[in-house]
Amino acid sequence: MANEELKTPETIEDLEPKMKVAGKVLKTSLAGAIVDVGVGIPGLIHISKIQKGSVARVADVLKIGQEVEVWIQRTDPEKKKIELTMLEPAGMEWGEIKPDMELVGKVTRIEKYGVFVDIEAERPGLVHISEMAHGYIRTPNDVVKMGDEVNVKVLKVNRRKKQIKLSMKALEDSPQEALRFEEEENEVREPTPTAFEAAIRKAMDASDGNNELAEMLSELEN
After folding, report:
1. Which pLDDT tens digit goes with each residue over 20-29?
2. Are 74 and 46 in contact (CB under 8 A)?
3. Domains in the chain and their CATH numbers?
């Protein structure tokens, strides 16, 4: 989302959550700042949404007349209210992350017990070492390194604790499944005989040692 282009909305109805727009600071206060985003109704940035980490005084960070880039957090056209943020929003909200979703993420942190993967959510998800691959893994570094892009599957989402459990091995065939598939592919199956072939074989079996009949039926079969 870092390279997202600025939008130029004309009315409050044009605004959408996560939309990136240009604005100009009109006023600052102890609680935040009022910003003009070009729709005729100013928006409010709460002090907690100005930058990562704490802000002691809004005036130390934002100045009247300063041009800023902001994202739309939420709007209420009926009440003519616009809430803004200067913190880039996550690609996915908690309510959008569901078990069994298959995603592509980037490894951002490696620990002894697993790796954290950025899936463009509010927080990275954890792939426990037991979910990285089938079989024994001595250390996560044997499988991935920092910055690697990996395919993951969502196992569980705990919105209250802000935790996302992911798996890499869930998207790979287990060794047993791979072996069984290979065996099935290599298995030589005897073709099903036609009705005529079946009749010949039955007659040969019923010949009770009659070599002449067996030879004749064999010639017919060939």
Report:
1. 999 999 999 9
2. no
3. 12-85 (2.40.50.140), 94-171 (2.40.50.140), 193-222 (no CATH)
